[in-house]
Write a structure and sequence with these properties.
The complex is a heterodimer of chains A (367) and B (165). By secondary structure, chain A is α+β, with helices and mostly antiparallel strands. In chain A, 47% of the residues lie in helices and 13% in strands. Chain A has 15 helices and 8 strands. In chain A, the strands form 3 sheets. In chain A, strands 1-2-3 form a 3-stranded antiparallel sheet. In chain A, helix 4 runs antiparallel to helix 5 and helix 4 runs antiparallel to helix 11. Chain A is globular. The model of chain A has no long low-confidence stretch (mean pLDDT 87). Chain B is elongated, with a radius of gyration of 24 Å. In chain B, 18% of the residues lie in helices and 16% in strands. Chain B has one domain: Alpha-Beta Plaits, CATH 3.30.70. Classes of the chains: A alpha+beta (367), B alpha+beta (165). Chains A and B meet through helix 2, helix 5, helix 6 and helix 7 of A and helix 1 and helix 3 of B.
Chain lengths: 367, 165
């Protein structure tokens, strides 16, 4: 006799340790199998796009820190690119190199958190997470030395960076660069062949390449599905065309591949920093830009490859000191659109790790 | 799912965790052991230089939060502004540092002090007298490299020994 079941609606979140912030999923379950989910967000809405219309161009930079708060430098970078495009500002050479070094360090720090949180969701309770936080701490130390704060850096400016690197920065970075590959190997020894991780993550939550493109997914989630698309390579911004690095891809597009993809990307980031450290010239770090920028009437879209995908800022200027409109294209929100198709037919426990493998930050979804 | 040699991956992983068990701890016992903070520290207190400030109000215009309030009177005899009121509501301050960068007369700095919790919201508002530099409230080197040189160097985790106990 078949067991008669009926759908059951479960509210997961908004305050749940595995939702990475205040995020709610209305999950329809049949037994333990996920039939449908509906993401409900807006719990962290601060109206950043609207606030940006009332602030000066420099005053928006601290707001962008609070979008994806674990990769603040990348948010600054995307916004500054948009303003520079809008106002036609030329960035000095040394500032470009500083920006690349800083944003690649930030990418490593953000991917460490992404990998650690994913493993935490898989059940590796806090051991890998804390190891990765220790490495992130070294990077955050460097950022604190450069910008004076540890989370909301507010370091980049339209036309360069706020201050030059302190003289003790490059030796400290050298030490970090010597240490980091060893730690990456250590993580691989800890996790790569772990049977529990493979059993939990391999073949789970497959996102086919075609569907990933249709949902306009970007970043590591797209590349784990086998699509070679990296804005640093395909539409180089800043000075990324000067560096030699690969765009790694993974074949299957399951949760395990997304984890491997992030680890491989960290290694590529290390390669970029290594080259940038060798080439960095001396000189000014900030172009002559007035405090209040009056860009000509027009619009500009600046985009970068941030640790989660394509982050874009769309600015419309009406020749005043504040933008007429500021629209943000957050990668977390767009990557979330594929979640429903990825989790259908999987169990509740798999829902947690599929959700963790997308790596979202709620501050960016709700804005 | 089948594995040919079940348990090898976990055993390999355990060697890493056991090695970590034997290394030096990374954390510090905060109130007793203290680390040096960054020379460019951006904290919750600002330091205002009474002599250098001309009352132009650039800081208040630059502040994205509108946390700075400045009221000036005109001194007709000497042809300059007198700063009657200079207040920063540090409860609103997001420590972005734009005011320090904007000040054209080098009259505003961050403080290098980080232990500034208060019991009441009203105490968060800093007035003119509370914002002056004292031996307890040193000036941070944010945006002023010459001031940064005088401060002790930052403790870095990359330089700490984390290998063996």
């Amino acid at each position: 006799m078949a067991v008669r079941t009926e759908p059951f609606v479960l509210n997961m979140g908004p305050v749940h340790p595995s939702t990475h912030g205040v995020f709610r999923m209305r999950v329809t379950l049949d037994g333990e199998v996920v039939v449908d989910i509906e993401p409900v967000f807006g719990y962290l809405h601060r109206g950043i796009e609207k606030l940006a219309e009332q602030r000066t161009y420099a005053g928006i930079i601290p707001l962008t820190d609070r979008l994806d708060y674990i990769s603040s430098m990348n948010n600054n970078f995307a916004y500054c690119l948009a303003v520079e495009k809008l106002a036609g500002i030329k960035v000095p050479e040394r500032a470009e190199y500083i920006r690349v070094i800083i944003s690649e360090l930030q990418r490593i720090a953000a991917l460490l958190i992404a990998v650690g949180a994913f493993l935490n969701d898989c059940g590796a309770f806090f051991t890998p997470f804390l190891y990765m936080f220790r490495e992130r701490e070294r990077i955050v130390d460097l950022f604190e030395m450069v910008s004076g704060q540890r989370l909301t850096y507010n370091y980049l400016r339209a036309g360069g960076v706020s201050q030059d690197l302190p003289e003790e920065f490059l030796p400290a970075l050298r030490k970090f660069m010597d240490m980091m590959p060893r730690f990456m190997d250590e993580y691989d020894r800890l996790l790569q062949q772990n049977e529990i991780l493979i059993a939990r993550a391999k073949g789970v939550g497959i996102l086919p390449a075609e569907q990933a493109i249709n949902c306009s997914i970007s970043g590591p989630v797209l590349r784990a599905s086998g699509v070679k698309w990296d804005i640093r390579k395909d539409d180089p911004y800043s000075i990324y065309d000067r560096f030699d690095f690969d765009v790694p891809t993974q074949p299957a597009g399951d949760c395990y591949d997304r984890y491997r993809q992030r680890v491989e990307e960290m290694r590529q980031s290390l390669r970029i920093i290594e080259q940038a450290m060798k080439q960095i010239p001396s000189g000014p770090v900030r172009a002559e830009v007035p405090h209040l920028i009056h860009p000509p009437v027009g619009e500009a879209y600046g985009r970068i490859e941030c640790p989660k995908g394509e982050l874009g800022f769309y600015l419309v200027s009406d020749n005043s000191i504040a933008p007429y409109r500021c629209h943000i294209r957050p990668p977390s929100l767009i990557n979330l659109t594929a979640l429903r198709d990825m989790v259908r037919g999987w169990k509740v426990a798999d829902l947690i790790i599929i959700f963790g493998s997308i790596d979202i930050t709620v501050g960016e979804i709700d804005r | 799912m089948k594995f040919e040699r079940y348990g090898i991956g976990i055993a390999k992983g355990l060697t890493v965790t056991i090695r970590h068990l034997l290394r030096h701890p990374t954390v510090n016992q905060y109130p007793e052991q203290r680390l040096n903070i960054s020379r460019r520290f951006r904290g919750n207190e600002l330091i205002w230089n009474r002599e250098k400030c001309t009352g132009c109000g650039t800081c208040a215009k630059t502040c994205p939060q509108g946390a700075i309030e400045i009221v000036t009177a005109t001194d007709m005899a000497e042809n300059k502004y007198i700063v009657d009121k200079y207040e920063i509501d540090t409860g609103y301050c997001i420590q972005c540092g734009l005011c320090v960068e904007a000040c054209p007369y080098e009259a505003l700095y961050f403080s290098h002090n980080f232990e500034c919790a208060r019991y009441r919201r009203g105490e968060l508002v800093q007035g003119k007298e509370e914002m002056l530099e004292t031996p307890q409230r040193k000036v941070s080197g944010y945006f002023y490299p010459d001031k940064a040189q005088k401060l002790p160097g930052q403790t870095l985790l990359v330089e700490k020994i984390t290998e063996k106990r």
